[in-house]
Amino acid sequence: MKKLMPAALLLIVFGILYWYASANHFFIDIDKEAEAVPVLVKAAAEQVDAIELETEGKQLKLIKVKEEWKVEGNEDYPVSSYAVSDWITTFTGVAGQSVVEEEAADMAKYGLDHPVAVYSIQEGGNVRQIEVGENTPVPGTVYARADGGKTVYQVSESDLSGLKRSAFDFARKEPLTFTLEEVREFKWSWEGQTYDLKKEPTAENSGDETENWSLNGNKVTQEKAVSLINAFRFLMIDREPERAQAISGSGAKEDWPLTITLQPETIDQVQQEETAVTKRYGGYMKEGHMWITPEGGAWAYPVDESSFNEAIQTWQDDGTQDE
Q: For the DUF4340 domain, which residue ranges apply (predicted)?
């Protein structure tokens, strides 16, 4: 009898551990459940006209107005439609790894009575929602439910991490916006020196498809011209944009004036001459950033000083400048 005691104790301990592991879903076949459980919310991205994020007590809502996305309460904030589309794609891609409980009566058990985060979209007047609760015993996963339903899912935190964003995450990051192919002149000044990049006219019967460019009167290749323009076109902001008035107001001295002349393609083929479009920007060096402001624009876009200097250096390395 004494010899059987250790074996009996082991069986009891094993039984307790098995019960605990089963109760906490340690034996879930993730691959099988992933196939069985669909995405939490199905929606047609093109029909979504509002998104809302509520995390850590902070609320952010964006609404679609005439194909443009706007931040509610700050309607002229510069929003990137690509960033919003990416968020919607992430939202509709959230899937449950498993069903924890189909008819949950006590949401408090999963932290869903007071969710740590709530994400929602509005599709054709219908609000679709994902609520995030506490962590599950399985590392890297949380409890979640969709549309206020009673089914509780186990969801990967990595699926949800892309939903937690701030207004800055949705902001347009490019201070300069224009179509590269339409550029006819790109002119700017810095520390008393002017750089004037122009696209020269090509003879009608030349048969040469290569564009002719000049920098301060000296010929440069098309490849070089594109590289110079892109040095500024690819600049990105690394912090929140601010109201232009706060940067350029009170007689602030402009450090970097830029003028871009564009020649949009003619829609009316009968029209003989195309109308040139001029875009002007002003740059103000402040707090280790070059704040770039479009003429008449409401916002100033901060580019890190080192990144701006790299763009300047790209042009200066060419060694062609007006005194």
A: 69-236
